[in-house]
Amino acid sequence: MEKVLEEVLEENQVLAKHGKVASYIPALSKVNPNHLGICIIDANGNTYKKGDCEVKFTIQSISKVIGLMLALMDNGEKVFEKVGREGTEDPFNTLYKLDLPYIKKPVNPMINAGAIATTAQIKGDKIKRILELIRDITENLNIDYSREVYLSEKTTGEKNKAIAHLLRARGMIDEEPDEALDHYFKQCSIEVTACDLAKIAIFIANGCKGLKSYGEINRKTLSRNLLAIMTMGGMYNISGQYAAEVGVPSKSGVGGGIMAAVPGRMGIGIFSPPLDENGHSAAGYGIMKSLSRRLDLSIF
Ligand code: GLN
Question: How far, in Å, from the CA of 242 to the mean position of ligand 1?
C-alpha cells in the first residue's frame, strides 16, 4: 500500500500545476498550492499515509455531509421534505432554479442551496453540534473552525447571501437568512487534515458504526443516505462522470479536500489545494482515478 500511495501521488502531482487555488474566498488564496497529502484507513483500522496529511485546511463543502448527518439524526428522512436527493447538472453555487415556480426545494444537500436548507434543520446550537460530531468521529478534540476563513466568507459570500435570501423568500427555510448563512459559513470554515477526512470516510463506509446515539434514524439508513447522496451529488455537476471514472461515494471542497468512502472497505482523505474548473482538487481527482483502478475500488 505504501508503494501504491507513493506512486499515485507522483503520477498525479503534475495535475496540481494545471489547477488554481480558490480565490473567491480571499482567505483561501493564501494557502500553499504545493501541499499534497493522502491518508487511507481500512476497515480494520490500519492507516496508510503519504505527504502532507497532517496539514490543516478548511473542510468547505465536505462539511455538507456532516450537516446532512446531523439533520438526519435530528429529523429522520423528513429532512427530504425540505431538500431533495436527486442529481444535478448545475454547479455547486447555482441559484436560478430556486426561483422557478414549480421548484419547491433545493435539488440536493450537496449544492450550497441544499446545504443551507439542510443545516437549517439541525436543532440547537448547530455549529457546536457539528464540531462535537466531527470531534467524536475523528477522536480529534482540537477540531475547530478558522475565524479568519469564516469572516472572509461572511464578508464576501454575495452569491451565498443571495441563495439564503431566495430560500427564505420562497419559504424553503424557516430560519432568518443571515442566521442560516452564519451557520453555513462557520461549518465550511472548520479545519481538518487529510487524516481527519479519512476517519470520517471510514466511519461512513463502515455503516456509521460507533456513535453513542443516532437520534431519529437508524445507522444503516443513515449511512445508505449519505453514501447514495455523495454518489449522486458529491461531485456536483460531474458526479456521473466521476461515478463512471472513479465509482466511489465522495465529496469535495474548495479548500482542496476530497473525502471518499469505499463501502465496507476504506476511507480516503486527500488534500491538494489547486482546483479544476468544476471546483474539485485537480490532483485529488486524478489520485482517485488512479487509486480506483489500482485497488479496484469502484462500487459499480
Ligand atoms: N464555502 C464554500 C462556498 O459556499 C463551499 C463551496 C465548496 O466547497 N464547493 O462557496
Answer: 19
Residue 236 alpha carbon, nearest atom of ligand 1: 9
Q: CA angle 64-65-69, nearest 5°?
A: 115
* pLDDT category of residue 99 using cuts at 50, 70 and 90: very high
- For residue 254, the ligand 1 atom closest to its alpha carbon is 8
- pLDDT (0 to 100) of residue 34: 97
- Domains of the chain (ranges; CATH) run 2-295 (3.40.710.10)
Question: What rounded mean pLDDT belongs to the chain?
Answer: 97
Question: Minimal CA–CA distance to 40: which of 253, 274, 248, 300?
Answer: 248
For the annotated catalytic residues, the residue numbers are 61, 64, 184, 236, 254
pLDDT tens figures, 191-216: 999 999 999 999 999 999 999 899 99
Q: Where are the alpha helices (DSSP H) in the chain?
A: 2-18, 63-75, 112-119, 126-138, 147-156, 158-169, 177-188, 194-205, 219-233, 239-245, 282-295
pLDDT at 54: 92
Alpha carbon of 112 to ligand 1 centroid (Å): 7
Which residue's CA is the closest to the ligand 1 atom numbered 6? 61
Residue 87: CB atoms within 10 A of its CB come to 18
Helices (H) and strands (E) in the chain, counts: 11, 7
Specify the pairing of strand 47-51 against strand 250-252: unpaired
Q: Ligand 1: which of 236, 254, 278 to mutate, most ligand atoms within 8 Å of CB?
A: 254
Confidence of residue 160 (pLDDT cuts 50, 70, 90): very high
* Stretch 166-187: mean pLDDT: 96
**Is 274 within 8 Å of 19 (Cβ atoms)?**
yes
The alpha carbon of 283 and the centre of ligand 1 are apart by a number of angstroms equal to 18
> Distance from the CA of 110 to the center of ligand 1, in angstroms?
10
Say whether pTM exceeds 0.85.
yes
